[in-house]
Inverse folding.
């Protein structure tokens, strides 16, 4: 009998390391040895990270290029200490306490409580667990903090006797950290002689040093960094990357030459086209190049960020530090007229805040007068603070200006986070930790154009115009079109596209001339009835062609022009794609688009209709790496697919096929899976794009096969698709599912629930939410009701009330984590196990 080989701890895992100053290569080598001894596979250091292959990323920081994409693909990112804890337990440790996510401020904290009242103890433990920490009832070797009021407790005595490296802190430290949402220094709270109890809040306190704003205190530094192209230290951060430097800096030719030499000497290249760039450096958040780069996923930063890369020779995200990102040209809404001054900040922190205030659109003043509107202070103790109280001037800490700038809108002064001042802490120690909210930036500065789907209404038509008005409008120069708003330009190109489709019939247009001063609209013509009835479709088409003649000429001219994102050929391709999708996706729309020339084609049976094939496949794509940061390639590939009869859709209900590189649990994959589509590999897209023109590969030859992930998730994809077809998007029909409002990415879970026919609600506990079932009328078994929750204190408070409401409604309460929903949606069956319960985590 064959003996099954022993399964090793990391036998299923592939690890990638992020090597930087926080995790040097020597430390990574030691970690690699531990991983390989336990069956793990480690990707070569400094190799480009392939997220399709990697299962875990080891990093001391979240500041690396692939972090956001890894988070979206639910790939765990953990610190090296996770390896040690997993090896010691011979079981994979929980991910959350070892994440480098800066939002989880207690991720390195392993807490045990001493002489703390039970109510306060539960609140502190809940907060630590919710913010990434761990807790144990007894003192252990891995314990980092003891929460106590005195040193009399046995845990404190034991820690002192054994000289353990553990910090004994007052509960006030946890309270102040939670109020600020930031982790401050424990020193003023350390027993046996905490400063917060021994000294007065107004006693002197030195200015703290802060590394987070070094090299990021000004958006436009005056001096170049020190040269790094020496034999001792070669510049490598730009290796194999193309950089475009915008003209809005107005750099001198000498300075620009020095920067370009540094980049090229380090293996990088300078480009003058944003379409070819990997990095785009500019000063303002405006212009076609900025919008294109931002939408395409190209790194966009300012000169300060570029200098920071040169100085440190290490990649960092331009969104990591607020003044490393281009500035808004217009003041943030609400900041006009503000006069702001500072207190209790010194050195580079003060310079940083001065520049941040100016960048937001307010006026910075060195001195304070009654006409000042705001005082930003690191401590609530100074002459300016006293004056602010007397003159009724708003007094806040720096988090208010930082978060307002990061979210591109003024934050409410009533938020207690902005008015919290710990008694013996200078808040300058946490300055510079706030990062941009990418979603807010996108919404305000480079919103993506809405992509029409089959169910969308047709675009609004132009108002009726006289012929002379049309001729006047068509005489605009190319420069006027290029500098106009993008939405206006798109509308113009869409309307001109109608004329392009008719241009092949120009000979017909030369035969007949339209009546003078005819009013023409994009819809039905305003004809005068003739004695013999309505005009023929052919005459209508000819009349339209003459009315659009000038627009056709301008369209053809614009199409040949190479330029920014919405210029020339790119705009034409985009419009071709959108009109093709609209025309082929809906029978009603298709008929409306083609009816102009239906009579003509009937009279000319030998003429072949020119256009894309009828849609035979509606394809939803997720995780296709070839399109990441390559908008131009994406558009070109989608056009080729459409020519083969494949319509790329974003609607999970409409798709007939789902393409993915492997079995994943992303929102798009799970929502589309509920429709029971044919699941294929993204290799099908490569075959379509690179194959012989006009030949559509057989999708059956590209069915997705991923036995490793099937084993990990405990499913068979073939069986899942069969069940999905049978479920008909009703897997969770009449299953009430609630989520807490604090649950991250709640909107994505909502889409998954509703895609499977479930009933979604946000549970707040303020009013009875669970519909009661009459036990006399319902003779069947008690039905479950689900609450998807995290471990935050505010969420835990809802559990008892939810349980009570469910039982009163004759329903079975189940408080679960997100794994339950992801497993149910992926398997397409209502599976249950007690391991999903959050109370057992």
């Amino acid at each position: 009998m064959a003996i099954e080989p022993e399964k090793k701890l990391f036998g299923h895992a592939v690890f990638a390391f992020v090597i930087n100053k926080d995790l040097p290569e020597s430390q990574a080598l030691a970690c690699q040895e531990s991983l390989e001894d336990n069956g793990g596979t480690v990707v070569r250091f400094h190799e480009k990270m392939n997220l399709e292959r990697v299962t875990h990323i080891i990093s001391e920081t979240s500041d690396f290029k692939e972090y956001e994409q890894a988070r979206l693909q639910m790939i765990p990112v953990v610190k090296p200490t996770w390896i040690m804890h997993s090896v010691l337990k011979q079981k994979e440790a929980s991910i959350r306490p070892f994440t480098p996510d800066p939002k989880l401020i207690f991720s390195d904290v392993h807490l045990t409580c001493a002489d703390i009242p039970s109510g306060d103890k539960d609140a502190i433990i809940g907060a630590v667990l919710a913010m990434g920490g761990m807790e144990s009832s007894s003192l252990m070797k891995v314990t980092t903090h003891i929460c106590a009021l005195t040193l009399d407790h046995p845990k404190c005595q034991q820690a002192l006797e054994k000289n353990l490296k553990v910090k004994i802190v007052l509960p006030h430290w946890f309270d102040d950290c939670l109020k600020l949402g930031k982790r401050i220094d424990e020193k003023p709270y350390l027993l046996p002689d905490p400063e917060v109890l021994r000294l007065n809040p107004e006693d002197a306190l030195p200015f703290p040093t802060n590394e987070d704003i070094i090299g990021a205190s000004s958006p436009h530094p005056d001096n170049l960094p020190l040269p790094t192209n020496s034999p001792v230290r070669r510049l490598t951060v730009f290796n194999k990357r193309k950089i475009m430097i915008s003209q809005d800096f107005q750099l001198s030719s000498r300075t620009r030459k020095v920067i370009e030499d540094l980049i090229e000497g380090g293996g990088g290249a300078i480009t003058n086209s944003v379409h070819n760039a990997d990095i785009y450096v500019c000063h303002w958040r405006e212009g076609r190049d900025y919008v294109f780069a931002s939408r395409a996923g190209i790194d966009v930063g300012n000169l300060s960020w570029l200098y920071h890369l040169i100085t440190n020779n290490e990649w960092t995200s331009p969104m990591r530090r607020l003044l490393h990102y281009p500035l808004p040209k217009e003041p943030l809404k609400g900041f006009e007229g503000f006069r702001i001054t500072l207190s209790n900040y010194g050195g580079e922190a003060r310079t940083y805040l001065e520049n941040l205030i100016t960048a937001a659109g307010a006026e910075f003043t060195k001195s304070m007068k009654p006409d000042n509107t705001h005082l930003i202070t690191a401590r609530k103790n100074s002459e300016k603070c006293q004056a602010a109280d007397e003159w009724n001037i708003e007094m806040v800490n720096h988090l208010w200006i930082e978060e307002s700038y990061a979210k591109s809108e003024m934050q409410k002064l009533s938020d207690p986070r902005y008015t919290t001042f710990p008694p013996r802490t200078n808040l300058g120690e946490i300055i510079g930790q706030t990062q941009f909210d990418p979603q807010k930036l996108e919404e305000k500065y480079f919103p993506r154009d809405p992509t029409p789907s089959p169910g969308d209404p047709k675009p609004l038509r132009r108002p009726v115009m006289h012929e002379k008005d049309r001729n006047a409008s068509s005489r605009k120069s190319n420069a006027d079109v290029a500098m106009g708003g993008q939405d206006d330009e798109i509308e113009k190109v869409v309307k001109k596209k109608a004329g392009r489709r008719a241009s092949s019939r120009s000979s017909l247009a030369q035969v007949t001339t339209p009546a003078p001063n005819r009013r023409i609209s994009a819809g039905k013509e305003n004809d005068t009835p003739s004695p013999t009835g309505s005009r023929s479709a052919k005459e209508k088409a000819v009349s339209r062609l003459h009315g659009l003649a000038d627009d056709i000429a301008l369209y053809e001219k614009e199409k040949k022009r190479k330029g920014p994102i919405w210029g020339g050929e790119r705009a034409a391709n985009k419009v071709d794609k959108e009109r093709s999708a609209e025309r082929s996706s809906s029978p009603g729309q298709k008929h409306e688009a083609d009816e102009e020339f239906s009579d003509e084609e009937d009279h000319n049976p030998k003429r072949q209709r020119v256009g894309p094939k009828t849609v035979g496949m509606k394809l939803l794509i997720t995780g296709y790496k070839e399109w990441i940061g390559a908008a131009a390639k994406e558009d070109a590939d989608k056009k080729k697919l459409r020519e083969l009869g494949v319509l790329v859709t974003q609607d999970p209900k409409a798709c007939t096929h789902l393409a993915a590189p492997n079995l994943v649990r992303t929102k798009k994959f799970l929502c589309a899976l509920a429709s029971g589509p044919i699941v294929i590999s993204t290799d099908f897209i490569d075959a379509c794009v690179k194959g012989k023109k006009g030949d559509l590969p057989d999708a059956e030859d590209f069915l997705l096969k991923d036995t490793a992930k099937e084993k990990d998730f405990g499913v068979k994809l073939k069986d899942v698709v069969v069940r999905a077809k049978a479920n008909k998007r009703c897997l969770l029909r009449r299953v009430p599912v609630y989520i807490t409002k604090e649950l991250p990415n709640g909107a994505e879970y909502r889409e998954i629930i509703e895609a499977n026919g479930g009933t979604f609600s946000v549970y707040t506990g303020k009013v009875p939410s669970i519909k009661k079932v009459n036990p006399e009328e319902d003779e069947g078994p008690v039905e479950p009701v689900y609450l998807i929750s995290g471990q935050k204190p505010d969420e835990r408070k809802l559990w008892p009330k939810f349980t009570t409401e469910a039982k009163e409604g004759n329903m079975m309460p189940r408080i679960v984590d997100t794994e339950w929903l992801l497993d149910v949606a992926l398997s397409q069956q209502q599976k249950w196990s007690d391991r999903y319960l959050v109370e057992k985590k």
Summary: The mean pLDDT is 80. Residues 730-840 form a domain with the Rossmann fold fold (CATH 3.40.50.10190).
